[in-house]
Amino acid sequence: MKRMEGGGFEARATMGTTKEEDKAVMTDENTSSLPAIFSSTNEKEQQVLECLKNVIDPDFGENIVNCGFVKVLKVSESGKDVALVLELTTPACPVKDEFNRLSKEFVKRLEWVDDVDVIMTASPKSAMADVPEAPPGLRGVKNIIAISSCKGGVGKSTTCVNLAMTLAQMGAKVGIFDADVYGPSLPTMITPAFDKLEMKEDGTITPVEYEGVKVVSFGYAGQGSAIMRGPMVSGLVNQLLTTSEWGELDYLLLDMPPGTGDIHLTLGQVVPITAAVVVTTPQRLAFIDVDKGVRMFAKLEVPCVAVVENMSTFTGDDGKVYRPFGRGSGKSICEAYDIPHLIEMPIEPGLSSGGDSGTPLSLSDPTGPIAALYQDIGACVVREVAKINSGRGPTAWEKSWTISTPRSARTTC
Ligand SMILES: Nc1ncnc2c1ncn2[C@@H]1O[C@H](COP(=O)(O)OP(=O)(O)OP(=O)(O)O)[C@@H](O)[C@H]1O
Ligand SMILES: [Mg+2]
Fold it and tell me: Is the pLDDT of residue 300 over 70?
């Protein structure tokens, strides 16, 4: 099997055969239309499947065969070589290398196997699949993730930009929509070579691109922020989002403005937001504001999958770790609403200067400790979204109940 341009692949049963009819050419697209292989009447294939059942998806707690990831399984005519295609739910799967390695390792334990060729591919479900009236420019968007907090200045845009770069580094196709019309941050935080949105003759908008990430911000419309009334702003946000040609995206990140106003509700009504990442700071004051934000997502039936407690700590020149804002808001939010992941992000001057200079820290120092924390956030998002899409995440009813009802207010039956 060999890689093809554009992420597709060509799987050929070249192992010990030259027969033309044994050759199969597959792309990511037509692999996704293939049914999953759960069992086989061929004895050797069945043995391979049994071996693969030792590879467990840590998020689903299920083996990769029962998860439906095996899409192609071939044993060569010589009967010694095995070719597999494993189709995951996202190209940014944080355990894809582990799946690859373990699959080979277990299958090679069969005494008749000489060689194992594994191709990893992905076929994410589209967020727009169930939206018949979806605007054409958004039809290729698989997942929409809101980066939000009711509170201003807590680091939403910093989180959004660095997370977007990280997801792209993990292999996903990513876009950012800056929903803050009053004070768009993206024009300062990143520096695309060409920073003007172009409107084509048919009225569609071409996003600007930065390091492979597609970006739309009112700040690139050449007008800067403006004094507008609520309905005008909501209309503009709606227009910018829905007339942009996003193309194929695995994750579209929404950099939300502070508050729970018209823009939030408009976005929640215009597009199906898959999940939200909540950003807060450690103070109790932040908890009160962020609590409102989580409740708003509950009303929109959007599950919050991770909390980023930003500016949690800083390390002094003496090497000691200080907590200038106290501790606890992030943990309290997670506990109150059963949000599965908490990531504490320290105060890091490089994050601030990276934001000001237009090169996010996760790009300028991709192997540093801060980039590692953004990789943790990325892994949480990817995993939780995969669970939601597979139906293994919370149902709509559970979502709204869990999120809108603080644990302390619940009664057990
Ligand atoms: N962990 C951090 N360490 C140091 N500086 C940070 C950190 N997080 C954010 N900042 C800085 O704090 C400021 C506010 O961050 P940011 O603009 O991301 O917040 P925001 O929540 O998006 O604000 P707004 O509500 O205005 O949209 C920026 O100057 C940013 O560089
Ligand atoms: Mg912002």
Answer: yes
Ligand at minimal distance from the CA of 189 is 1
**Gap from CA of 336 to ligand 1 centroid (Å):** 25
- The answer to whether 383 and 393 are in contact (CB under 8 A) is no
Residues with CB under 6 A from ligand 1: 152-158, 180, 183, 185, 257-258, 310-311, 345, 347-348, 351-352, 355
Residues 6 or more apart in contact with residue 92 via CB below 8 angstroms: 167, 170, 171, 172, 250, 251, 378, 382
The whole-number average pLDDT for the span 405-409 is 43
- Report CA(405)–ligand 2 centroid distance (Å): 28
**CA-based radius of gyration for the chain:** 23
Nearest CA residue ID for atom 11, ligand 1 = 352
CA of 402 to the centre of ligand 1 (A): 29
pLDDT tens sequence across 176-223: 999 988 888 899 999 998 888 888 888 889 999 999 999 999 888 865
